[in-house]
Amino acid sequence: MTTTPQAQSHGQLPMGKREFIVLAAFLMAINSLAIDIMIPALQQIGASLGVENENHRQYVVTTYLIGFGSAQLFYGPLSDRFGRRIPLLIGLVVYIIAAFGIALIPSFAGLLVLRFIQGLGSAATRVITISIVRDVFGGRQMAEVMSLIMMVFMIVPVIAPGSGQVIMLMSTWHMIFVFIGTMAMLVGIWMYFRLPETLKPENVRPLTARSVISGFGMVLTNRVALCYTLASTFLFGALFGFINSAQQIYNNIYGLGVYTPVAFGGVAVFMALSSFINSQLVGRFGMRRLSHAALLGFATITFLWLMVQLYGPSPMPFPLFMILFALAMFQFGWIGSNFNSLAMEPLGHVAGTASSVLGFMSTVGGASIGAAIGQFYDGTATPMIIGYFTVSLIGIGFVLIAEKGRLFRPQNAPPPSDQSLALH
Q1: CB under 8 Å to 363, separation ≥6 — which residues?
Q2: Which end of the chain is more exposed for a tag (fewer CB within 10 A), N or C?
Q3: Closest by alpha carbon to 267, among 158, 385, 104?
Q4: Distance CA 198, CA 195 (A)
């Protein structure tokens, strides 16, 4: 099999669609693995490295996300100039070295530095993988493929926390980082031998300050791309807020202990099912109709969840908590991939730069919002649930701006009195 740029010159991959979807999902899952497998280990990491404030343990997740989000600004322009393969391989190497380094680090401050560096490497897997998908697919087909990728991707939150728990039962938290470094190495080898260059020669962009600024301008002045990205940013902020607080909510409030990964994985199953259903329906109903309905459903469910939390028994019965949480995250599964595809759709000619700018905004912004939600943890789930409902309202506002006040617009119809997607 050839791995030259010409392998993609006619838009055809020299591998099956199923293998492409699974490989793309595993590349993106490297990032999720570095987050979700930490959940059961945060308490042990904090105790081992002398972290007294339990809310500060959340920085193990937050510093990684900040590094992950920040570096996305650079991988996009690099991949638009040098192709997708080389920057992606470099990012994987950085991730692997940092993971093995963390296993040897003796201090919490040093761990946070290496987690930031690990995030810098992991950013390549997010930006460049989405760019590769956009290189090969567009429109509803891209949304369908992204939904299938997300379905496979969601296997990681199902098994990662349990894997982390098993590793700690057999060894210490240090081996978790050895494990994720090894997994990244295996995925990197698979990618090196099976994934060709997908950037078409006519889409290569020069790596100059003017070119990069121009590319960023195309993204930031596109109303649809910008507003859907901002909506995603706030919604992902709620998700990151839960990830930061999950160990405290499941252990301190509900006393799940070693069963925390089961609860975490149960919600992930709902998200995976949602992504699969989305992949089957998006071609028929379109990204807007499905994601807009899901966003309204998300707001309705989180409002009900908040009312039960404020006026019901305290703490909320665990089965009821899980039902409402799972229903909210089921809606989230329809929102994520569709919003991402809607943001990327008008920017195919600058896919790498677009993916990097949009990824930077949604990740750094989402991580910051999630960190704020997590730091408000007060021994109850109330701050997290308030965060979920608040971001749903903000998300609706940005979508209304993107669509000029009209939800459920047919996929190919222009917004009212606007024949262009760009801001004027």
Answers
A1: 65, 68, 69, 72, 126, 236
A2: C
A3: 158
A4: 8
pTM: 0.73
- Please choose, from the candidates 359, 399, 362, 371, the residue with its C-alpha nearest in 3D space to the C-alpha of residue 234: 362
Rounded CA-CA distance 231/74 in Å is 23
Tokens 């009209």, residue located:
406
- Asked whether the beta carbons of 387 and 230 are under 8 A apart, the reply is no
Number of domains in the chain: 1
d(CA 68, CA 360): 8
Site of tokens 């990012």: 91
Range of the domain at 308: 11-402
- CATH number reported for the structural domain that contains residue 368 in this entry: 1.20.1250.20
User: Which SS3 state, helix, strand or coil, does residue 208 take?
Assistant: coil
pLDDT tens, position by position, 45-94: 998 998 888 788 889 988 998 999 889 888 888 888 899 999 999 999 99
Distance of CA 292 to the CA centre of its chain: 19
For residue 374, tell me if it sits in a domain: yes
Answer yes or no: is 226 within a domain.
Answer: yes
Q: Tokens 């006026």 label which residue? A: 311
310 is written with which tokens?
């404020």
The stretches of 137-203 forming alpha helices (DSSP H) are 139-153, 155-170, 174-194
Model pLDDT for residues 96-154, shown as the tens digit of each residue: 999 999 999 999 999 999 999 999 999 999 889 988 988 888 767 777 787 778 777 76
| Cross-strand pairs, 422 | 222
User: What contacts 255, CB < 8 A, 6 or more positions away?
Assistant: none
Cβ partners under 8 Å of residue 145, min gap 6: 17, 21, 133, 136, 137, 279
